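I'm curious: can you give me some protein's one-letter sequence along with its backbone structure tokens because I've never seen that pairing?
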Amino acid sequence: MPPDSQSARLLGELLEFMVAAADPARVLPPALPPDCAAPARVIGAGKAAAAMAAALDRHWRGPLEGFVVAPYGHAMPAGRIRVIEAAHPLPDMAALDAGSALLESVRLASSRGEQLVCLLSGGASSLACMPPPGVSLADKRAVVAALLHSGADITVINAVRKHLSLVKGGRLALAAWPAPVLVLAISDVPGDDPAVIGSGPFSPDPVSSEEALAVLAAYRVPLPPAVKRWLEDPAAESPKPGDARFATVDYRILCTPGSALAAAVAQARARGFEVLDLGAALDGPAEALGHAHAALARERLAAGWRGLILSGGETSVEVQGTGRGGRNSQYLLALLEGLRGEMDVAALAADTDGVDGSGGAGAWFDATVVARAELYGLVPGSFIRTSDSHGFFATLGSALPARPTRTNVNDFRAILVGAH
């Protein structure tokens, strides 16, 4: 961010405060059992998996062995725990190998009665992949890619993912039974539902195969024949709530979008700002939310209010055209459009995992950025229609660069009303 932009620096510092509040090194140790001296087998997957593994290695006093899967570029040394990498958000061959290795490791723990520790965070759905019989990796990639571009939210997308997997939707819990399982999770989903976080490999699945098929029909996703056959097969049904085999799973959520946003809100208030906290579970279309927040900011400004409007959650984008960017920069572009050239508002929107779709980590704007957009003749609406939000902000020098934060508590949105 430009050093001469006080507003941009403030917003960026609040983002960093939210990311720091979700640092695995901070949130994992307090959640560990008092006695960490027993041998344990470790598995895990997600954007925070490598940092969680490093924290576990430092604090678990007993013997440890195992591995976790992180996105490419997110690995870090984790002592006794191996870190491997795979693709996100669409699985690749490395993710396929990782899914097979996870299932093998869980079965080994079951046969030996070992303590199993699973480190789980957002991104796991792609990083550990094991399609059911007859469904190819290409089939699964095609279905997931169509859903990701359809505007469907993460709960809907993961409902389908769970039914196209032999490791998600509670199936790892069945493979682990009767071994004791400790799941340590960082939530990245609105509502913090364990069945949705990482597609719930150790959680019962309340969604049926029939409902997954209905989702695919509602979003007009072309179905490969093998996918349709599998979802119509009774074998596709996932284990449901009430299954006694989940009794050996101890599930602990270390950090949530709500707790991380609360830390940023407290920091903003400590700096003397009045804060309107909209909560950490906002979802729906990114463009609609951006326009709604623009109306709210204009209303507050007209009333003479000065302060910060903060929110989190996970919006969605129906991708058109180039698709450069993600839900945060798309939201910010719609916010800018809705502000109609208002110069007394600055804003930032970013994903706490450091990656916002296909471009950067998000974006920001202040009065100087608004002025440059007018000077260059850049019209937000035209970039919204081609889903090129990253291109808009990159041209203006206000796109946030992608970076691995090694955590993930979803999105951070901040609007400074009365920026001057």
User: Anything to note?
Assistant: The longest strand covers residues 64-71.
